[in-house]
Amino acid sequence: MQRPNIVFIMTDQQRFDTIAAAGFDYMITPNLDRLVQEGTCFSHMYVTSPSCAPSRASLFTGLYPHTNGVFRNDERWTHSWVRRLADAGYRCVNVGKMHTSPFEDSFGFHERHVVENKDRATERLPFYLDNWDKAFWNRRIEKPSRVTYRRREDYGERLGAFVWDLPEDLHSDNFVPEFAAMWLDRYQGQEPFFLQIGIPGPHPPYDPTQAYIDKYRDRDLPEAIRDQAAMNGQPSALWKLREQHLSIDHDAVVHLENPTPEQLRRQREHYFANVSMIDTQVGKLMEALERRGVLDDTIIIFTSDHGDCLNDHGHSQKWTMYEPSVRVPAIVWSPGRVECGKLVGDLVSLFDFGPTILEMAGLDVPKWMEARSLCPYLTGTKVTPREFVFSEHAGDRILSGTEFMTMIRDRQFKLVHFVESDEGQLFDLLADPQEINDLWGDPDHQDVKRRLINEILKWRIRSDLKTQGWTEAIMKEAGGQSPVGMGNNAG
After folding, report:
1. Of 19, 130, 247, 353, which has the fewest Cβ atoms less than 10 A away?
2. 435 in the Ramachandran plot: left (φ > 0), alpha (ψ -120 to 50) or beta?
3. Is pTM beyond 0.90 here?
4. Residue 55 and residue 94: Cα distance in Å, rounded?
5. What is the domain-level CATH number for residue 120?
6. Is 214 part of any domain?
């Protein structure tokens, strides 16, 4: 069989409950619905870290953050499995956000057309390296950001929800996929391609166009989960995180301690509308593949790097281990290669897409990879499900109340451990899917708590054994060169 093209679409900060056909009928997502109905959908995919760079570095190495060393945004990446695809004859192209560090290194791609966060002003990514910045400069238009939004009189009460009133093609969530579609229309090569499309939304600012907001005006949307007693009882690290958000307008979101129902509703309308904007672009990308005559020879993967609390549990954005922060949508579509209309409820991990992509491309998966291929689910062969999924995050300038936070989840329970504290969280997700009743101090659940903490210890020990020598292995593969830039594949 001819080697398939692979289009890997990754949004930024899209929570799991945002696709209609996946069980959330308040959403308007006809193109993602098609992928779900004609492909395989994973309902319980968890990220290995609830923030951008650690999650993505883990995905593109197949290693947990504690193994690859990327615990925080802006920490240096050292490896990517993309080089394996390039060495095997794939044309490897990135359009949009990957949040690599350094931003400009190739990481195995032949082409990188970088577009980073919607709200970003950092010397680490000069404007001339960001294609979206160039587009604004070419039109002589000031790019929206917290700098421009702060000029609004109502900035402090919007919860990051704004309306895009500039040319629609300049919106990042249109610009990036339309750039990718242009690449598909113009690419003249004959080799199979790996096209990674990093769409910056629905990460804040939550700024869809008015037409998409209007679609959600009269829809019955889920309300934010805000149980005051549960919020008062959160561990001190999460109290400090909420205080941090109240003091700094991260990504143009002015967090409020007591938002009104109207403010919470508006934030969700804008967020879900932004997802619907992205859905439209997914349809256009499929049309571009069809124009090229390769849709039937292409595997499409859709997922996100982490979720967004949207004020659930009193929290802004991510950096927690609550379900809306760590659980993401995940679909694999390729009629004839992937089982059609299949919903997988087993626990899986975002970085499992690494070995999955390598295997679907006909390549061997390195033995040191901690991620597991999802291909048995896609082809209907025998599967040994994960017993646990894990997520972790080191303290940083935002999550400043803990040195290190670890989550373990099995089919029933979720435990969150803070390394420097006797505090933690324990939820029975079968009895309490909204994570309101914290069982950490409950005498009847101390055996469960001890068991899961012990499983974290065993996981870390097995991780060390599994990955022993992985850095030497990738240096050997790179011919003794640094595996970071991977300049032989840049072009």
Report:
1. 247
2. left
3. yes
4. 17
5. 3.40.720.10
6. yes
